[in-house]
Design goal:
The structure is a homotetramer of 146-residue chains. With 146 residues, chain A is of the alpha+beta class. In chain A, 19% of the residues lie in helices and 35% in strands. The first copy, chain A, has helices at residues 30-45, 129-140; strands at residues 9-14, 60-70, 79-89, 93-102, 105-117.
Amino acid sequence: MSLPDGFAFAHELRVRWSETDPQGIVFNANYLLYADVGFTEYLRALGYPYPMPTKDAGTELFAVRSEVDFRGSARFDEVIAVAVRTARIGRSSFTMEFEVRRDDALLTAIRSTYVNAAPDGGGARPLPVDFVTRIEAFEAVAPVRG
Amino acid sequence: MSLPDGFAFAHELRVRWSETDPQGIVFNANYLLYADVGFTEYLRALGYPYPMPTKDAGTELFAVRSEVDFRGSARFDEVIAVAVRTARIGRSSFTMEFEVRRDDALLTAIRSTYVNAAPDGGGARPLPVDFVTRIEAFEAVAPVRG
Amino acid sequence: MSLPDGFAFAHELRVRWSETDPQGIVFNANYLLYADVGFTEYLRALGYPYPMPTKDAGTELFAVRSEVDFRGSARFDEVIAVAVRTARIGRSSFTMEFEVRRDDALLTAIRSTYVNAAPDGGGARPLPVDFVTRIEAFEAVAPVRG
Amino acid sequence: MSLPDGFAFAHELRVRWSETDPQGIVFNANYLLYADVGFTEYLRALGYPYPMPTKDAGTELFAVRSEVDFRGSARFDEVIAVAVRTARIGRSSFTMEFEVRRDDALLTAIRSTYVNAAPDGGGARPLPVDFVTRIEAFEAVAPVRG
């Protein structure tokens, strides 16, 4: 699997029957599901299997905004790739970019911002230093694509 | 909404686009989802809104077996009814019957057994007396149907 | 159910167990599902039960962009409302706004653009005149809220 | 991945966040979803990628009955295997057995019967000879497990 320009990570998956609709294409909400799966695998590639990178700090990551551009449609049984990268890291939040692709065709582009916060509405908390360090290292070592 | 013979309770719902597949019909696993929604509403009719009837006892209800007969198919935007009744009550388990219907047509019949158990594998526990009493009263007062 | 300012339509639904995650809250992709349900009901209120308003024209509506702001979380068994309005009507596309609310609390705000297009990538087509007329009439007669 | 006794095929998958519920375990209807994924991969192993083995005959496969025994629970991020075998082949129907396992632990056992039928209620049709031949060959060559 080749990686899109600017991405150091992608996760492949195969479209399931239950994810498609009577138009024969993936139901639009499921692209956010694919992004969520991609995010989990990206964290694993960073060395954070479940539970999540913020667990020691007693905080949780919450999605606060997603922008989704639907440009094409995946169909049942197609193998697609979810490319993932960190586009921005702030003090208590960060922004991820996802591209769902079938071969060279960009199907959906998603940009999601997550905030690190205390559970139950306790407010934003600084991102763990280790988390920031790992992302910076990971994104810097993006391999030559091909 | 009329009730099928032998049922004192039914819950109506409308089939969602995301629940149907490229054949244009409800994906088969979603009938178990509909039964779960019907079970929640049946418990509410018994006077048990969430949290569940076993909460005071510190136990949880787990599905241990389901038998599903698929006889017809619901399609997007159809209004269907999930009829629910208790078919058997034992010491620590009970069996529910569900019929998913569109008007007079039986689409799916489900028979599910639940056991009351301590969380985390602690084994079966007797059903709360209050739970058994309410079910017996509810099923006995089934109104004349029509 | 009161309507948020500027909205003439809302649809109530109850959060299902299957829609919530181990954090005890609705999985984020399901807010797009709720918006889709709300859009279907909005079209019905306009007088367009399924099949859709573009059927006579042989075209289909495709979501091309969604912006989602997550501000709060719904939990299992809560009754929530999906308020729906048309924010913009263009020649071949239109933009809908959705607010998912629990009582007065705004949980998620969604802004989605749909384009009317020939199936299988045949390109954008003008919105049917009848569709535009109905939306304009519907949005103009928004009742006094309360 | 080792195969359970009597099974010549299994497909691995990882539990997604969206498939788990507030108890932290896979929602019960999703085991039927996993069986569906396993069935698709079993057909692929038989040499039938989508579209399905009955396509030339103009018929479709419909699930008519499923029996599900829930014996254990999978949790988020666990890798599980769906073992699949054909338990019975009749003239127009056949029965599949599925075991969802985490390592040696059997989590769910499913037995599902499918019938080959004309679309839109036209009645049962004989299974294609090629389909029967491939299943018999596939099940006979089950490799030594380990």
